[in-house]
Structure formats: structure tokens, C-alpha cells
Specification:
Layout: E1 5-7, H1 17-20, H2 23-31, E2 34-37, H3 40-50, E3 60-63, H4 74-82, E4 87-90, H5 103-112, E5 116-118, H6 124-132, E6 139-144, H7 149-166, E7 169-173, H8 179-189, E8 195-200, E9 208-213, H9 214-220, E10 232-237
Parallel strand pairs: 1-4, 1-5, 2-3, 2-4, 6-7
Antiparallel strand pairs: 7-10, 8-9, 8-10
């Protein structure tokens, strides 16, 4: 019997387990003792939340090195799987491999003939799209906008064009400490008849989801408006 790689979603923030983890996920984490993780600290916190009785000292947590192209001890993981050991994968937040590392591990498992099992859990991209009221038939996730001012303006111009021509929802993220700067740039640069949705702290008690036209955003924003250092998703649509 070969082992399987289980892709285990984790919380998007300070959320109770019942908010994001089905009982099947909890049962699986209770059973597993080997994990490939983006952050050992985050993984321990998640496992403790899901399974308070689990002895964390008995776990083997293999970290992916984000500073070296998300490298990891491939042979060690493949050996575990070949010996019939099931392995869990946890990224830093939300669903593994979606705007998060993990695809390298998953690709290696497919190439080696091991089953990969995705589990149900929170994706900030999908949750924000659901809540935006924008088209879910055609959408594009771009990750981070370019840091260079000229390139960022060009990317926003192209995004606005795709919304107009194709009706395609455009989705971006930003480092939380640059939220306010990006929001004000979007409101300044985008055509006033397009709409912008900002989803903040999804699945947590402080969750906020705001959707307005750019014209309405310009009227609503004040000097005191701030979402500094709060995880956010930005969506442009019609």
C-alpha cells in the first residue's frame, strides 16, 4: 500500500475550527503524524486548534524552504509515501497550492505515482469572488500587482480593459501593510463606472466585505479609512 498526500486547508485568520474545517479534516489530522509544511509554527498552531489532545512532540514536520525556491527534502517525503505512510501538506493560510506554495510537492507526487487528495477548506480567492457579486463564469487571479509604479498602472489599465471587453472579474492581493496605498491607487486610477470589491479578514469575527463603484468609493473614502495590516482581497468587476 502506497501512502497518500493530503492537501489540508488551514484557517485564514483567527477563526474557530468549526468555521473552516469539516469533521473529516479533523479526523484526518488526528490520524496523521507526518506533514510537509510551509511553516512549522503555523502548522503546530493549526493542529493544536483542530486536535487539542494530539501530542505535538510525536509529529514529524518537514518544512518547505521558501527562500530556496520552495525546495524540500524530496527523497525523504517520497520514501515515506512509498513505505505506506500518509503525509499531510499545510501551507501558511487557506488552501494549499492556491496562491500558496505546494505545487512542487504535488507535482512530484503525481510523477512518482502517489495519490493526491485535496480536502475542503477556505480559499480567500473563491470566498471573495462568491461575495463580490461579480462574474464567477470568467475571472482571473493575478496575485500581487507589480511593485514598480509604471508597471502597476499598466497592469491596472489592462485589468480594466479585460473587465470591459470580456466581463472577466480581476482579482488581486497585496501585502497587508500596503492595503491602504493600493486601495487609494485603485480608486484614483480605475474608471469611475467600474466596481471594486474589497474583502477583509475573511472567516473571522472582524470580516468586512465592501463593494461599490469607483465613483462611490471616491465619495466614501476618508483620511481615517484604513485596513492597514489586515489580510485583504481586491476584485474589479462590472
Amino acid at each position: 500500500m502506497k501512502g497518500k498526500l493530503y492537501l489540508i486547508p488551514v484557517s485564514l485568520g483567527d477563526s474557530p475550527a468549526i468555521r473552516y474545517a469539516p469533521s473529516q479534516n479533523v479526523e484526518l489530522v488526528t490520524r496523521l503524524s507526518h506533514f510537509v509544511v510551509e511553516s512549522a509554527r503555523t502548522a503546530r498552531r493549526c493542529i493544536r486548534t483542530l486536535c487539542p489532545e494530539k501530542d505535538l512532540d510525536d509529529l514529524l514536520l518537514i518544512e518547505v524552504d521558501k527562500h530556496k525556491g520552495y525546495s524540500y527534502p524530496r527523497e525523504r517525503v517520497m520514501t515515506l509515501l512509498s513505505e505506506g505512510v500518509d503525509v499531510g501538506f499545510m501551507s501558511e493560510a487557506g488552501c494549499p497550492c492556491v496562491a500558496d506554495p505546494g505545487s512542487i510537492v504535488v507535482a512530484d507526487c503525481h510523477k512518482a505515482g502517489f495519490d493526491v487528495v485535496p480536502l475542503v477548506g477556505p480559499s480567500s480567492i473563491i470566498l471573495s469572488l462568491m461575495a463580490s457579486g461579480f462574474s464567477g463564469q470568467r475571472f482571473a487571479f493575478h496575485g500581487y500587482l507589480p511593485y514598480d509604479d509604471r508597471e502597476r498602472r499598466q497592469a491596472l489599465s489592462e485589468a480594466a480593459s479585460r473587465v470591459r471587453r470580456l466581463g472577466e472579474t480581476q482579482i488581486f492581493i497585496e501585502a497587508p501593510y500596503r492595503n491602504d496605498r493600493l486601495l487609494r491607487e485603485l480608486v484614483e486610477l480605475l474608471p469611475k463606472d467600474l466596481s471594486l470589491c474589497m474583502a477583509v479578514d475573511l472567516t473571522t469575527e472582524s470580516e468586512e466585505i465592501h463593494r461599490m463603484t469607483i465613483s462611490e468609493w471616491r465619495q466614501a473614502l476618508t483620511r481615517e479609512s484604513s485596513w492597514h495590516k489586515r489580510p485583504a482581497i481586491f476584485l474589479i468587476g462590472q
